[in-house]
Design a protein that fits this description.
Number of domains: 2
Order of helices and strands: EEEEEHEEEEEHHEHEHEHEHEH
Strand content: 25-35%
Shape: globular
Radius of gyration: 20 Å
CATH topology of the largest domain: OB fold (Dihydrolipoamide Acetyltransferase, E2P)
CATH class of the largest domain: Mainly Beta
CATH superfamily of the largest domain: CheA-289, Domain 4
Oligomer: single chain
Length: 294
């Protein structure tokens, strides 16, 4: 595969009490506020500092340092909150301080070092002005605090004809988040789909070509957008200009609000766009995909 220039990525840089420098995609950030007074709930998760009231709405405040295995800061009024919205939920991340916003290319964000392990809580690493910046895996942080219960497929919402149409059809899922990958693959397999999974866009491109050469082409690709080295948009562009796999149906599956990204998804040639994570919405999207292919 030819080298693909990554899309521009805006990162909000911030530090924890330990001084550790992290980044989060700016599209996931609603606002940054001083830490307000918190209501501490009984039996709350140890990584939750409390509940804040933000313009009349309750906001769960997470002690990010403790959530990723560091020592937290008990000072109630120190630090600030990064208010994030993703995967249909909103929460405040308590951090020591926010530094600045920087621009980089997804090509310059590398996967976590080998051996980082499942407790790394990062999806990638990059360098900004000579400093190492770790990109936060906020999906994993949220899942560890409140694991999403696997939803059962409601067969009353999917016709027997559609389930029969999906049975054994070939789908590839690519996502750099282990949590999101597991959720998606579980749902697709419950639908009877023949599902493979990979953790990077480069691996997805290679599998698409390998399966085509083997005479068992992938029919639908379900791809994350935010991934190190090559993001979902660049992956779609590369697929569309590659003759043998250029017709592959692509569903972009993102933790960001899909309404913000639909126009760009269409411009690069994606067939559909969906916000994580809803078993019902994902099931319906796959039905739409195979109906279109039929």
């Amino acid at each position: 595969m030819n080298a693909v220039l990554g899309d521009s990525l805006s990162l909000l840089l911030f530090r924890l009490h330990s001084g550790r420098l992290l980044g989060i995609n700016l599209l996931k950030v609603n606002e940054i506020i001083a830490c307000p007074a918190l209501t501490k709930l009984p039996n709350r998760h140890p990584h939750v500092r409390g509940i804040a009231s933000l313009r009349g709405a309750s906001l769960t405040v997470i002690d990010l340092a403790r959530a990723i295995g560091e020592r937290g800061n008990n000072a109630s009024q120190e630090g600030c909150l990064i208010v994030t919205e993703l995967s249909r939920s909103r929460q405040g991340l308590h951090v020591q301080n926010v530094e600045r916003i920087v621009q980089c290319s997804t090509r310059d964000v590398k996967p976590p070092p080998a051996g980082s392990g499942s407790r790394a809580f990062i999806t990638g690493v990059t360098q900004i002005d000579g400093a190492i910046v770790q990109v936060l895996d906020i999906e994993k942080v949220l899942h560890d605090i409140a694991p999403a219960e696997p939803e059962e497929i409601d067969e009353s919402l999917i016709s027997s004809a559609d389930l029969q149409m999906l049975e054994g059809r070939r789908v590839l899922v690519v996502d750099d988040s282990h949590v999101a990958l597991h959720q998606t693959v579980n749902t697709l397999r419950k639908l009877g789909l023949d599902c493979q999974s990979v953790r990077s866009a480069g691996s997805a491109f290679a599998v698409l070509q390998e399966q085509h050469r083997a005479g068992t082409p992938i029919e639908v690709l379900v791809s994350d957008i935010e991934m190190p080295e090559m993001d979902g948009y660049s992956l779609v562009r590369e697929i569309r200009k590659t003759t043998d796999i250029g017709h592959t149906y692509v569903l972009l599956h993102t933790s960001l609000d899909s309404t913000m990204n639909t126009e760009k998804a269409r411009s690069v040639g994606a067939n559909d766009m969906l916000t994580k994570f809803s078993t019902v919405d994902l099931s319906n999207a796959l039905v739409r995909a195979f109906q279109a292919l039929s």
